[in-house]
Amino acid sequence: MKSLDPRVKRLPEIASEAQQDPKISLAQFGTFEVFVQPNPKKPFQHEGAVHAPNIEMAYVLAKETFTRRFTCSSMYVVETSNVYVSPLTEGSQSVYDLVNESKDTTTTKEQYEVYHLAKRGKQHIHAGAVVATSPEGALWEAKNRFNTGTAVFNVWAIRTSEIRFTKPDDDDFWSTLPEKKFRDAADYKGGEKLKTFLDSTK
Amino acid sequence: MSMHETFIKELLYKMADDQLILGHRNSEWTGFGPLLEEDIAFSSMAQDKIGQSHVLYQILHELGEQPPDTVAFMRKATQFHNCIFTELPNGEYDFSLIRHFLFDTAEILRFDMLRTSSFLPLAELAGKIHGELRYHVLHANTWIKQLGSATEESIFRLQQSLTLALPYALGIFEKSPHEDGLIGDKIFGGEEVLKDRWMEKVEGTLKDTQLTLPAWSTITPVFGGRSGNHSEHLPPLLDEMSEVFRIDPTAEW
Question: In this structure, are residues A60 and B138 in contact, taking their beta carbons and an 8 Å threshold?
């Protein structure tokens, strides 16, 4: 049986004949982006990334990594390489000022989910969905649909078909979360007890 | 105490003790999980189990038993009704995963049966924690499918743990002396029905992997836990779990 210990795998093999092979990549997991909906009235927002061997494992691992504490009504994941990222702008310049109609030659249309970065350092928030023939086309469509004039510093576009959504039957995953306030530091009000204790030891 | 109440208490105790003991065992992985995301997920689910045991002890308290903390931390090993399966040491992660898969598959089916229980507090609890249980089972099934067909080593190790775990897993379904009463009073459909449904589910999930199940008839179940006859692994677990509580049982937290 071969060992899974990466140190064992990295031991060099001793050559028997001269050859030139492509360098083998390390056996590390890829990353997946996680989007969370805090409640049914709010849009999905980007929460972070998880490492996983495939999208189903990513969904399972993301659930507790990103939604174990605050209220949540739904969650989805997508492979990082399926997130199309626009250039970044700053100050009063909006990404949409840089977007021109794409000269895409393909005609097959697909739905894309579009996300806005409204403030540097904050999360990307879902702006809506558009139908386009390419990620660049999605950006152009988004400019027409979601550009309110307020500066947007970065835009993401993801093919809807690449997303692992929460299945309708599973939307009660988070139904007992409001009772788990003990997972939040704010639930531990030790101030009074500490004061009493300190007073008693004076 | 009426016979009816005796049946219910016996059922509640074995369920609550299963959840508490396995919740504690699984929580021993906190900080040692195979990857950070999994460490967090497994710890959260352990916490869910302990939370579910707390609700069951609370129902018992309302039926006249001691308060949850007393029941959880002050009993001796012989007074616990969990199946031996839940108290076995974690060993390697493959064993913990297999136990998580086998136990939680039985657990969600048990609570599904209890959704129509004539004992309303149990029926309500079953409805309330349905989402938690569904996630636990999705987590278990996804891992088993992943590692059960990933590499030679992962398949070998899961298979080894599966073979070791199965006799203990069948111990989950050790019949209660009040089995007929529970069924007759429509409190719970019984261990035999549960076991059949469990076997079907386990077979269904393992079909998508390279793991193999021996014929059920060749496995001898390990019984005893339900009547307080435990392995040598339970007393040290209880000592550690109740260490802080026993320093001062009257302390307020």
Answer: yes
B127 touches chain A (CB under 8 A): no
Residue of A81, A82, A86, A71 whose CA lies nearest to A36: A71
Report the residue from B51, B146, B156 with minimal CB separation from A53. B146
Q: Identify all chain B residues contacting A6, using CB atoms and an 8 Å cutoff.
A: none
The model's pTM: 0.89
Mutant choice from A64, A181, A183, A194 vs B, greatest count of B C-beta within 10 A: A64
pLDDT for A143 beyond 60: yes
ipTM confidence score: 0.91
Inter-chain residue contact B37 with A62, CB threshold 8 Å = yes
- Residues B83-122 have pLDDT tens digits of 999 999 999 999 999 999 999 999 999 999 999 999 999 9
State how far residue B132 is from chain A, nearest Cα, in angstroms.
6
What is chain B's length? 253
Q: Where are the beta strands (DSSP E) in B46-131?
A: none
pLDDT digits (tens, 9 = 90+) for B159-208: 999 999 999 999 999 999 999 999 999 999 999 999 999 999 999 999 99
Q: Say if residues A163 and A178 touch (Cβ distance below 8 Å).
A: no
CA distance B1 to chain A (A): 33
pLDDT at A72 over 90: yes
Q: Does A68 touch chain B (CB under 8 A)?
A: yes
Measured CA angle at A24 (ends A18, A25), to 5 deg:
165
A177 contacts chain B (CB < 8 A)? no
Query: CA dihedral in degrees (A98, A103, A106, A108; nearest 10)?
Result: 50
Residues 6+ apart with CB under 8 A from A44: A35, A36, A37, A74, A76, A125, A126
For residue A35 the two structure tokens come to: 């989007």
